[in-house]
């Protein structure tokens, strides 16, 4: 086999591997979103009370750590469903709260629709243009940390204005994260579909929450 043939073969294998990661990621993401949505629906139906910030953070970071540790084994699939199911349960009481306000059902549906449009639009853009958005990595890491700390501060300090600003920040940051993660898969920077799924799921989760808060605020909610 000539050097050129070897290069072509290696290139073909790389493309096949990338396509496999992409396919597995979107398949798993679809399944986890459905499972998470079902868990949120159950939480709404049984009128489950909010878990509280401490339980939510401990559960989220604990299951995220577990998923990261198990990402190369079959147990990683179990842990990613545990993580997304848990996040769905935390979402249920929030949705229930918004459903009690005027036009609450419309606000929730608009937030869901907006999240879907943003995700599909950004993913489609990254997939069709195949641009490399790896340069966003450092900015996103710092931005998400700052927005997360500001969000915690807004809850303890009861500052609605700061809370809305954090929501707007998260919409921009999660949009950037979708572009970044999709680009990483396309260009071989992310080869583990479980971790790619977790990143995209978290982006969608935060997008939905942020849109829900902004729409609720401008729709008459405190």
Notable traits:
7 helices, mainly alpha, single chain, 222 residues
Element pattern in H and E: HHHHHHH
Report the principal-axis shape. Answer: globular
What is the percentage of strand-forming residues? under 5%
What is the multimeric organization of the chains shown?
single chain
The total count of strands amounts to 0
Topology at a glance:
Blueprint: H1 3-45, H2 53-69, H3 75-99, H4 104-129, H5 137-157, H6 160-186, H7 193-218
Write up this protein.
- This protein is mainly α.
- It has one domain.
- Helix content is 83%, strand content 0%.
- It is built from 7 helices and no strands.
- The chain has helices at 3-45, 53-69, 75-99, 104-129, 137-157, 160-186, 193-218.
- Helix 4 (104-129) packs across helix 7 and helix 5 runs antiparallel to helix 6 (160-186).
- The radius of gyration is 19 Å and the shape is globular.
- It starts with a helix and ends with a helix.
- The model has no long low-confidence stretch (mean pLDDT 86).
């Amino acid at each position: 086999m000539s050097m050129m043939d070897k290069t072509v073969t290696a290139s073909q294998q790389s493309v096949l591997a990338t396509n496999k990661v992409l396919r597995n990621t979107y398949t798993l993401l679809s399944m986890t979103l459905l499972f998470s949505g079902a868990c949120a629906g159950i939480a709404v139906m049984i009128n489950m009370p909010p878990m509280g910030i401490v339980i939510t953070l401990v559960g989220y970071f604990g299951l995220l750590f577990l998923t990261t540790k198990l990402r190369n084994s079959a147990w990683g699939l179990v842990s990613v469903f545990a993580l997304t199911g848990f996040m769905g349960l935390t979402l249920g009481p929030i949705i229930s709260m918004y459903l009690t306000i005027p036009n609450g059902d419309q606000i929730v549906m608009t937030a869901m629709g907006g999240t879907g449009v943003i995700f599909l639009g950004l993913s489609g853009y990254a997939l069709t243009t195949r641009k490399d958005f790896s340069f966003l990595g450092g900015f996103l890491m710092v931005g998400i940390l700052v927005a997360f700390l500001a969000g915690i501060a807004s809850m303890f300090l009861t500052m609605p204005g700061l809370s809305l600003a954090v929501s707007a920040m998260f919409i921009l940051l999660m949009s950037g994260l979708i572009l970044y993660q999709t680009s990483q898969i396309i260009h071989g920077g992310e080869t583990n579909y479980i971790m790619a799924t977790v990143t995209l799921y978290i982006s969608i989760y935060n997008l939905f929450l942020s849109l829900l808060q902004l729409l609720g605020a401008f729709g008459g909610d405190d």
